[in-house]
Amino acid sequence: MAAPRLRVPSPPATGSQLARTAQQVSDEVELYHRTYTTLLRSSGETLLRVLEPSHRSMTSSLHALAGSEELDLGAFLYAIRRLPDAVAGARVIVMGQEAEVFARHGIGPLDDWMPLEAPARRRRWYDDGNGTMAVLLASASDLDDLVPTLVAYQIEWNKVRLRLRGAQPHIHRLIEYVGLQRLADLDDHVQLRDRHGDEEQDE
């Protein structure tokens, strides 16, 4: 999700129109990147919802329905595969490159926390069991992948919660069943897209 593909408008546009569209999308991606890197350099916590407007404006093909009320199950599953299951109950996620950095700021020791994994990303996650998670990042590109993934997850998770609010128990079970079936149908497609994305990065 760090490098969203451009969504070419339809019907086909002229060369100048495509250039303007590409520049606009590039500017929105740059704004998004600048927004979260600036916020993360500041002291204190950064709320994910602050990043949602610029995430939606980025118009990533991996989260095409970010600005819509319609569920984007493909983007939701894409995010779920890159995050540990415990992220659903997390209140705070702390990011850093070395365990020693966490220790200097009074976080951890990480060796005493529960180690976690995500299905599609080999990152070292830790859970303190009280709503705080820590993740070790290897590089700046790791950050550029993780932040949009977390924001996409929150956007789609909140859509699901809105649909479930006030629903009767049997409706909850029906939605869960239908949702899981649709997610299962999308799983092969998302895994294929994962492999295709990895191949593009390796080139």
Task: State the gist of this model.
Helix content is 52%, strand content 11%.
Protein model, in words:
- This protein is α+β, with helices and mostly antiparallel strands and 203 residues long.
- The protein has a domain at 15-80 and 140-202.
- It is 52% helix and 11% strand.
- The protein has six helices and four strands, in the order αααβαβββαα.
- The chain has helices spanning 15-41, 52-57, 73-80, 99-104, 140-164, 169-202; strands at residues 92-96, 114-118, 121-127, 132-136.
- Strand 3 (121-127) and strand 4 form a beta hairpin.
Rg computed from alpha carbons, rounded to a whole number of angstroms = 18 Å
Structural class by SSE content: alpha+beta
In which range does the helix fraction lie? 40-55%
- Neighbour order of strands in the largest sheet: 1-4-3-2
Which series of helices and strands comes N to C?
HHHEHEEEHH
Spans where pLDDT lies below 50 across 5 or more residues: 1-11, 195-203
Strand count:
4
- Major sheet size, sense and barrel closure: 4 strands, mixed
Note the overall shape. globular
Cα end-to-end separation: 17 Å
Number of H- or I-type helical stretches: 6
Mean pLDDT: 76
- Strand residue percentage: 5-15%
